[in-house]
Amino acid sequence: MPFLSKIHINPARRTGREMLRNPHLVHGMVMHGIPGEPTGERILWRLDSPNPYRPQLLVLTDAKPDWSHITEQAGWPHSDTEPFAIRDYSTLFAHLATGREFAFRLTANPVENTMTPIKPTPAQQRRRAAGDTRGFRISHRTAAHQLDWLLRRADTWGFTIPPARTDTPAPGLGNSPTPAPDVRITAREQRRFHKKDNGPGATGRLITLTTVTFEGRLAVTDPAVLRDRLVNGIGPAKAYGCGLLTLAPLPGPRHG
Asked: 216: helix, coil or strand?
């Protein structure tokens, strides 16, 4: 049974600030919230900051977790409000039906595999010289390519992005142009952090990660495939806060 947790992070605490900067630290703290050895399950997480003074850490787990250690080190342990919440995520699956629409949010690492990078890095050049025939994983850097990455793959993940809803044009203005897909990029970031190695004095390997947060509206095309993506995530860099797709009911019709 999957559980979706929401943990409030306090950016005034040192560990809270470090978590907002370093996904490797968040990964370690998330793993310590699972009883026993969490080696047999996929754990997804995402940092959301709708309010910069009260960012939220979302975590999807198979086992029921305990986030007391995060609250004590990086949260609001003495607040009157609930420091974290855990809910059964499987209730969402009963509502997945072909054609049904949801609001969605996804932070992802849009990449392509290519055999011929335009500007190979020194590491890629060394791999070529050594005769390595594997493809190279290249991050998309522009918003246009990042949106295209999502739109081209959506159907393989069990959903599509419908056209944006528009009002009927006023009489005499004719038909409006074809609306764009109902999705937007709300955040783009290139993050650099160190993944610590074992051993005293180790500084760790520098990781560079391009992340993009998409928000919009999706329509279910294959409930079983979408359920799999909800549980197992989308795209690479899942250990570093990418891949967690969350759904929410669409707002009701406006009256006025």
From this structure: strand
Domain count, the chain: 2
Using one digit for the tens of pLDDT, what is the confidence trace for 109-154? 998 766 555 566 666 667 666 776 666 667 777 999 999 999 999 9
- In three-state form (DSSP H/G/I as H, E/B as E, the rest C), the secondary structure along 83-131 is CEEEEEHHHHHHHCCCCCEEEEEEEECCEEEECCCCCCCHHHHHHHHCC
The Cα–Cα gap between 178 and 88 comes to: 39
Q: Where are the beta strands (DSSP E) in 109-220?
A: 111-114, 136-139, 159-160, 183-195, 205-220
Structure tokens at 135: 């493809």
Q: Which of 93, 125, 152 is the last residue of a domain?
A: 93
d(Cα 67, Cα 55) in Å, to the nearest integer?
A: 15
CATH of the domain at 48: 3.30.70.1200
Summarised one tens digit per residue, pLDDT across range 16-63 is: 999 999 999 999 999 999 887 666 678 999 999 878 788 999 999 999
> In the chain, what percentage of residues exceed pLDDT 70?
79
In a domain, 253, yes or no: no
Place of tokens 């392509």: 112
Residue range of the domain that includes 84:
3-93
- Same-domain pairing of 143 and 158: yes
62 CB neighbour count, 10 Å cutoff: 16
pTM: 0.84
The answer to whether 98 and 221 have CB atoms below 8 angstroms apart is yes
Residues 110 and 206 occupy one common structural domain: yes
The answer to whether position 57 is within a domain reads yes
